[in-house]
Design brief:
Radius of gyration: 14 Å
Order of helices and strands: HHHH
Helix content: 40-55%
Number of helices: 4
Strand content: under 5%
Number of strands: 0
Distance between the termini: 20 Å
Structural class: mainly alpha
Largest sheet: none
Length: about 80
């Protein structure tokens, strides 16, 4: 989340309606996700007015951030 924020992309780690809770998301639990995976999720909200260039930027930065985090976890 912080890496994306440093690239100008705001995301959340929880649902909009339950932002103060550390409990696992009931919606993600209902589809069978493990608590570990649920706590690794981010939520992204789109307006529908994003340009292709903006979406390409988000995809590029998201991929880069995931690669960076995976590299750190192998150290």
């Amino acid at each position: 989340m912080l890496l994306l924020d440093m690239n100008g992309i705001q995301v959340s780690t929880g649902s909009a309606c339950d932002s103060r809770s550390m409990a696992a998301s009931p919606a993600l639990s209902a589809i069978g996700m493990s608590k570990r995976d649920i706590h690794s999720c981010i939520r992204m909200t789109f307006s529908g007015r994003e340009t292709k260039q903006e979406l390409d930027y988000v995809c590029e930065k998201l991929k880069s951030c995931v690669e960076d985090l995976r590299e750190l976890s192998t150290l």
